[in-house]
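FIELD: query
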Amino acid sequence: MYHAELSDIVVGGELKKRQHLSFKRMQEEQYQPKNFFKDITYDWPGDHEGRVLLALVMTAQATHREPEYLERIMEEFPDRLNCEGFLGKLFCKDCIDEQQISGHSWLLRGLVELYRWKKSEQALQMIKDIVNNLFLKTKGFYQNYPIEKNDRQNGGAAAGNLTGQVKNGWALSTDVGCAFIALDGVTAAYELLKVPDLKELIQEMIERFRQMDFNGLYMQTHATLTAQRGILRYYSIIKDENLLKYVQKAFREYTQTAITAHFANHNWFGRPEWTEPCAIIDSFIVAVQLWEYTKVPDYLELAHKIYFNAMGHAQRPNGGFGCDNCPGANGLFLYPMKDIYEAFWCCTMRGADRISLAANYIYWIEKNTLYTAFYHDSTVTLRFHDGTVTLKQKTDYPISGKVRFEVLDTNCVEPKTVKLFLPACEQRNDVVLMIGEQKTPVLFESGFVIFETYFRKGDIMEFSFPLGLYKTVFRDEFCMQEYEQIFHGPLLLGISGEEEIGSPEMTDLEHTVDACYRLADSEKTLEPINKITFLPAEDALQSKLQVLFLRG
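FIELD: result
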């Protein structure tokens, strides 16, 4: 199974607005050539450069706009690299800097995506130099990466730092486990280069990572989730089912012990101090990929909630991404952290990258089957073995469960199985599919509505399903407390203000507009938390929403 390419997709609606906000932010002074390269003394060599490069490449493809400064940045790279072709100090086997290793994983990812997009020979040579002169030199050292609780110091701010400890040849970071972020970069490089020594390194890294106790070590959730993404990429190459089972287990530990009420993350396992959009993005990707490989619909349900809530609330009005508190472990309210309102040094770039990827995840093809996993206004060219179909989607999901597809063009001759994601829905009798004027019978399987059709130019398909108000129970394992949450479809709802209120009765909520509900005999309104992106900047900074309600 594979997803449609960004080059074949043009999105509209809210996703387009979010993508263009990210693209605009990535063209601003903070990320222009004069600020792109960090000083040689920077604690995270390659990290800023790699994340910005990756964001520029991905947002350009998603918005179909050329980034203004990418060429100049690539022209400057040769003068910034050390004599072995990477950033920062040369490799030292007695003091391997895990922050340098982590940072260069992002640089590898940016270069790999640039090569795939532009077939840049410069990018390819840089990938080979970083692999040969930095990463392959760590082979044999990962098996001794410090994983005992007494080996690590807890602490650190939103941007981690080296602790001053050197253990087993590793210079350690407060972002515990960040050396395993490299699983993302090296697996991307291996997918491209197929270097046998790199495969051996990946297997050594995975073996050591699997020995780590996330909660016992207070590991950084971003590091663990990025590593899981790397393991899933490696799984897609070698098809070892044990790797898939391990990631399912590791991801379950994350969702059970380190997730907030709005589907974001605790920055460290066991330390719910703030969220980090980098990890939110990772969790979104892991959830989608686990659905891709297992077809378990719960993963896709979770991915929708991560996208619309955690990612939605984390994007600021300027297009950047910032950190929030941890509702549940930190009380009933959700609000931006004032001092890390925008994490411009890392999360803004990761958010730009993955808001772009959200378009990739709408449409999937498996032989003669089309999966629509997300609903966004979009036009896509779908490439089957017997031809192409150009499809236009129009929807106001998640405000309602109405989706309209129009076949703009096709030269396919064989019938196609179409699978449309159906968010958890008890009232299946209210699920309706119309092709033209004809109501079409459907099957239900693994979270999807299924039917077979011949695509013909001009065909209209209209899909509708119930989507409304409901409550769920959220149990926070950190504080061992149960709360109620209120949703409209996948949208988490909150009430603005400082005053805590009890859980309203469903009969006391009157729907007004766009998934908003007014409390009876009150001026208070429940509204989707992701509206923060489209508020005036000062209002977004001061936003505070009650998203949890004490039961009873």
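FIELD: remark
DSSP finds 14 helices and 25 strands in the chain.
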